[in-house]
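> Could you send the Cyclase/dehydrase superfamily protein prediction when you get a chance?

Sure thing. Input:
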Amino acid sequence: MFALVRDVAQYPKFLPWCAASHVQPPVDAPSGARSDEETLVARVDIAYMGVRSSFTTRNVHHGCEAIDLTLVDGPFRDLRGRWSFQPLREEGCKVTLDLHYRFAAGLLGRVVAPVFEHVANSLIDAFAHRADQIYGTGE
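Output:
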């Protein structure tokens, strides 16, 4: 599951609201960072119900355990989140997404807010469905 979430370039293939995604090359980890940390900057373009927008996040990968997201650019005042991956057995894991966001004031924020609410609410199910397509159900 970590590999599916990490691979932002593949999002348009299975997230129906994702029109495009762009990933910049990995960034050197800051001094003091764990050796298994990797940082990527990624932009996701959303198109849903006639609304188009994009946002860019800095994604810090902590081994295969977690991915932390922070806002770089987009229609938000604040966006941060954490994907956590807890192994349950060899064939599966528990995936948690803790996402916090506030939109910037103005018309764009009011227009994009309901769209992003749909996006946020559909993420876990979309990734679980993609995992079933790629890896099977494990049964």
